[in-house]
Specification:
binds flavin mononucleotide, alpha/beta, 304 residues, 45% helix, 12% strand
Length: 304
């Protein structure tokens, strides 16, 4: 998730456990190919067999609208060590959409299919290519057709965020609209949107029929959510992390950044803003650090 789930956060969350894979923030291609160091900066796990420190595979997500550029960039990323490529057809940002990227492409399913086909044919057969889409731009009416076009173009699995671009991030996700997509596809469909608890997963599964799920904001609101889901699938039950356990993760996240990294206070505030939706203690901590501007002062508050 762009600006939120970067490499240090991927390391932290996957170390808690429960993930089969995770995805980088999107890497945007618009004005030509990117140099190798950009891939490494954005996706430092490249230097570690494309795995987080805990061993979870990391998928590189690319965003763009030019099939040849995306194909060449995917091939370059694979030459650098990427093990799977995901294509972003869901970003609702006006800036990205004005350049025909992200969710804007939902208005041009033929172009989406061209992108998938170009990327697929540029990569070795063993490298999975996946697509992340929304239900549509302003209407979900063409969701099944779009997903089928992506499947025919060669995508190995599709993740559908069960909202349109115009829905933004507002609840509720429309899980019922995932069922006809799943029933039309022969490849796996990964459900996404509003899965914030084990109970949400159960209801989403019942309504959509989807076996696979991608977590979004829920992973940030409840950092052990993936672990809880895995335990539930194994007929096990684990005690959910409470605020006191989660609070201890905040300084650990800061330690995962290279010394001198800028903007860390903002990162912590952003995460606390998500955590406080679930944990009252996070709201109090957020208030206590809201006006602080340096990480040492934040760490002093977190240590109390
Ligand atoms: C701040 C933010 C950044 C995001 N960045 C990305 C991204 O880079 N790539 C992507 O595929 N989805 C991105 N998303 C969308 C999420 O992956 C997910 O599809 C969406 O939040 C719906 O799931 P949720 O309701 O469980 O959060 C982002 C969402 C948010 C809120």
């Amino acid at each position: 998730m762009e600006g939120v789930i970067d490499a240090p956060m991927r390391r932290l969350l996957t170390a808690i456990g429960g993930y089969d894979a995770c995805v980088t923030e999107f890497l945007r291609l618009s004005d030509g190919e990117l140099p190798a160091h950009t891939y490494h900066k954005h996706f430092p796990e490249l230097a570690h067999d494309s795995q987080t420190a805990g061993g979870t595979p990391v998928i590189l997500q690319l965003l763009g609208s030019e099939p040849e550029l995306l194909a060449a960039s995917a091939a370059r990323a694979v030459a650098l060590g990427a093990i799977a490529i995901d294509l972003n057809f869901g970003c609702p940002s006006r800036f990205v959409n004005r350049k025909q990227g992200g969710a804007a492409l939902l208005k041009e399913p033929e172009r989406m299919a061209q992108i998938v086909a170009a990327v697929r044919s540029a990569l070795p057969a063993g490298i999975p290519v996946s697509a992340k889409m929304r239900l549509g731009y302003d209407t979900p009416d063409r969701a099944v057709d779009i997903a089928l076009a992506l499947e025919q173009a060669g995508t190995d699995f599709i993740t559908v965020h069960a909202r349109t671009r115009d829905d933004g991030y507002r609840a509720p996700a429309r899980w019922e609209l995932l069922r006809p997509i799943r029933e039309s596809l022969t490849i796996p469909l990964v459900a996404n949107g509003d899965i914030n608890s084990v109970d949400d997963w159960r209801r989403c599964h019942e309504i959509s029929g989807c076996e696979h799920v991608m977590l979004g904001r829920g992973a940030l609101m409840q950092p052990d959510l993936a672990l809880q889901l895995r335990a539930w699938h194994r007929d096990d039950e684990i005690e959910a992390m409470q605020w006191r356990d989660i609070q201890a993760l905040l300084p650990i996240l800061l330690e995962h950044y290279a010394p001198g990294t800028r903007g860390l206070c903002a990162r912590i505030k952003q995460w606390l803003a998500m955590l406080r939706q679930r944990h009252a203690g996070a709201a109090a901590t957020f208030d206590a650090i809201r006006t602080l501007k340096d990480t040492d002062s934040v760490l002093a508050v977190l240590a109390v």
